[in-house]
Amino acid sequence: MLANRILNVLIGITAIFVIPLQLVTTLVLGLIVELTFGILLLPISLIWILLSFPMIGASWLSAKARWLREPVGILGIPWAIITSTFVALMPSMGEMESRAAKLMLAESWPYSWEFWKFQTQHLSIWDPDIVGLREVLERISKGDALKQRTVERISAGEALDPNV
Fold first, then answer.
1. Pairwise CA distance, residues 147 & 150, whole Å
2. How far is CA 48 from CA 54, 69, 90, 157, in A?
3. d(CA 104, CA 118)
4. Which residues contact 113 (CB under 8 A, 6 or more apart)?
5. Which of 2, 56, 85, 111 makes the best surface tag, with the fewest CB within 10 Å?
6. pLDDT of 149-162, one tens digit each?
């Protein structure tokens, strides 16, 4: 839990630089995606996979060996910040709930494995084994209607709406 609290503070600090840059990158990359008829989405998706899988794998390891949760969590904070920044800077192409889910995957570090299982409907948010994830989700979605709606839709087993 300590790693997640540190991560949230650091993401807040980096947001000072990322948010203004986000306006430019989403516009420019969005236009390039349109001009390339969506082909640019392939490398963007590949980079997302290369960033998210190691994070999910390390989170899985720390979920299996609970004593590793805090050390792995603290060591993985830079990776989670890079992943979160990448998602923030990439064009959403109208899929806002999908983008919110990706941001929550990064921001829920070191509970990313549990969030991924929750997102893929293999874990209920009310499972007593994931109290930590539930607390993290409440904290990162507090005051963010899009993230709250995304969590509700995933909980209900609904597909994320690409046209929010």
1. 5
2. 11, 23, 10, 23
3. 11
4. 56, 59, 60, 62, 63
5. 2
6. 999 888 888 888 66
Q: How many CA atoms lie within 13 A of 87 on its CB side?
A: 24
Query: pLDDT tens-digit profile of 27-81?
Result: 999 899 889 988 988 999 999 999 999 999 999 999 999 899 999 999 999 999 9
**Token pair of 27, please?**
């516009």
Q: What global pTM score does this model have?
A: 0.88
DSSP 100-126: HHHHHHHHTTTSHHHHHHHHTTSS-TT
Q: Which two tokens stand for residue 99?
A: 């983008």
> For residues 71 and 76, what is the distance between their CA atoms, to the nearest angstrom?
9
Could you tell me the two tokens for 32?
Answer: 């390039």
